[in-house]
Structures are given as structure tokens and as C-alpha cells.
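Attaching the record inline, Q. Sequence:
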Amino acid sequence: MQWNHPNMPWDSTEVCVADFSDDGYSMVDGTTKVVAGENNSVMSPDWSCDGHMMYISDKTDWWNLYQVTGNEHVNLTPVLKEVGNPHWTFAYYTVDIDRSGSGKAAVCIAGVLNILDIQTKVLTPLNTGFDGHRLVQYHNGVIFCVASGPKQFPCVIKVEEQSGKVQILKESRTVPVNHSYFSIPTEIRWPTTEGKISYGFFYPPQNKDYTGPSGGKPPLLVKAHGGPTGQTFNTLNLNIQYFTSRGFAVLDVNYRGSTGYGKQYRHTLRTKWGIYDLDDCCAGAQHLAKEGKVDGNRLCIDGGSAGGYTTLACLAFKDVFKAGCSHYGIGDLEMLARDTHKFESRYLDTMIGPYSGEHIKTYKERSPINYIDQFSCPIAFFQGDEDQIVLPNQAESMFKAVKDKGLLAAYVLFKGEQHGFRKAENIQMALDGEFLFFSKVFGFKAADNDVKLDIVNM
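Structure, as predicted:
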């Protein structure tokens, strides 16, 4: 499998077949392209037991599983759901063929684990008690995979096909928390700009020991995922539960451009990053306020990296949120385009446009760092001092702009941290600090929070 810049593996890729020399160190002349084409994202090539190539492709708008028989490419899972995922990393298996020769494969479709009869194309879903499944391995009637759900952290499970027995082999983590404290999300949709629809998971406040004030509505925290070609799931996330157990509602947004909703939805963000993601986050918050589920005067937003960019851009270019929090958020798109690693070096060609000519103006216009005078609400910044993707001076200049306006502002620079925090004490500080910051903005006491955060203009 290969692709050429400016494509990413979820844009246009090719799968080739070649014979190796007897010693295995070189290819014999005659390499053949089996699958190729513009806007055809192909991934996970494999061979069935009878020697037919199988692969995942989004040629029909959805990442489905195909088999090559002669010159015919047969869609084995012709459903309007995703089998594939964006390949930010290798070995993200959602399909595995039973090597025992049963003629079947284990296939994850929109997270649901299925057994596929390759000959008849009949899919049989397996009820494991989990919502999401990935990294699947299948042999002789037994499936191993990583599974997760709204009440379960990712764990390795064993599934016996015939009996349906499910055994948890290893949990990624265990936390002695009563499930009654967990907020269970509902996937919702809402109207957004240009007559389109956006999606996300809504988490209402939940704490078995407390209820909100009678007649009151909770504040809302909108979360923008990174990528931006990515997706948020309903997997148990303690960062979200931290807020919902303390009285916040949370909207985890899968804005236009996210994966999981077909190629057309994913491609909608092409050249529109910094526009549609902002529109969808704002429209989602306003939709919930209009529905009476949250307090429209207490809307806030956070995000990290690319999600931090969406956060900062919403705060610079929109007037919807009353506060925000950036975790190593991208403020300068030009710097990102000029200096990043090879894999993403041409990513923004698709998301914004090639960094040349008239497109440079667009990079400047969509960079929050160039519009710091438009910040008009309290913002907290959490940043690593060794971050080479988002240099600390970006957060520092934006913090100063908010501070100089007399608005509440906070800036925390973590020593030894890069693009994403890794030390437990810093992760905890960023979480506690964000909640404390919002408590000062919205005028309530942050319970069980003794974090020391320097908030200016108090």
C-alpha cells in the first residue's frame, strides 16, 4: 500500500502486488497495481485462504470490505457504515480472516463485531456487551480483540463464536468507581450551516450523590477532537466523566470532516478547516441551549492540538462561548505548514490549500494568533515548554492579549512536556486547573479542588 503527497492515507492510496526474489530481498519486475484511483482510500490489504486479495476501500462513499476475484472487485459488506478507520498508525485491524479455512472473517462495522461468511456475504453480529471493537484476530471459531463501551475501559476480550461466551482477558485500567457516577452518552445530531447536519455525543450531568438546582440548567463544555481527520467515540473517558460528575453537561463533537460518517462527510472539511469545525461546535452548543438542556449563558469549549486550534478559532472568530481552555492548541497555521514531520508535511494542502501563492492569505486569516485582539472572553492555556509543534510563545502571546483586556486568564507552562502531556501530575493539574478556571468564570465553588492556579484579573 502506498500514497503520494499531498494525499494522506484516508485520501487516495494504491495497493500493488509484486513477486519477491527467492532470497526475499528484492522485487521481481512486473509489479501490478490492483487498486488505485483518485479519492479512493484503500487500506488493510490481505489474502484469503484460497488466494484472493481482500482490502478495505471507500469507493462507494463508505469504507467497505472487498474481495478480488479475477478482474472483479466484490463488495462483501455493502452497508452504509464504516469498516475502516483513518490510518494515523499502522496495524489498526478491523478485519481478520480465519486462517483455519472456514471461509469466514471477523469484521468490525461501525464498531460492532460481526462474523462474515465470505462466500454468501452474510453478516452475523456478535453480542459481546461492548459497543466498540478493534484490533481483531480470528482463528478457528475464536476471536480476540480490544473492546470498549460507555461503562468500560478498553480491554482485551476472547469471544467464542459458537457459544457466544465472552471472557475479559485483560483490562487496560481499573478504577473503583460506582457506575452510577457515570454519564452515559447519547449520539445526537443537529442542524448546522449551509443546511447540513453535524453529530456528536451528549453527556448530561450525572452524580448519584447530588442533583442540580431545581429549575436550573447545567453549564455546557464542548469538546473538539484532534486530527482533524479523526473521530470521538462513546468509550468511557474519565476526562469527560470528571466534568459530568461535577455538574457540567458535555458535548463531544464529531464535526464535519470527522471519520465514521462516510467519505462525503469526511471530505466536507477539505479547504474548510477553520470554518466548518467552528460552525458545527457553535451550532451544537446553541442547539442544546435552544432545546433547554443546557444554560445558554454558560457555554465553554476546550480542545488539544488540532482540537485546540478549533477551540482558539471559535474564541477568536465566533461569539458563542463564554470561556475556553486550550491544551497546546495550534494558534499559527503558517508555522504548522512550514515545520512539521514528513507524514503530515502536506496535510494542510487538503485541509486549507497549498502553502503558496494566494493560499498564504488564507493561512493568515484562519490563524487565531493573528487576531488576538478579537478574544473577548476568559481563556486558560496549558502548554509544554518542549513543544516543537506549538511553540510556547504562541500561548504566551495569546495569554497576554486576554490578560491585557482585563479578562480572566491563566497560563501554565509545564517543564519537560512536549506536544501532549505525559506526566501524571501535569495531566491532573491541567484537568483540575481547567475546572477551577471555569468555576471562577461561572461563579461557583469548585468542590474537592485544591489546585494552585494563578488566574489573573480576578
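The first helix runs from residue 238 to 244. The CA atoms of residues 16 and 33 lie 4 Å apart.

More tomorrow.
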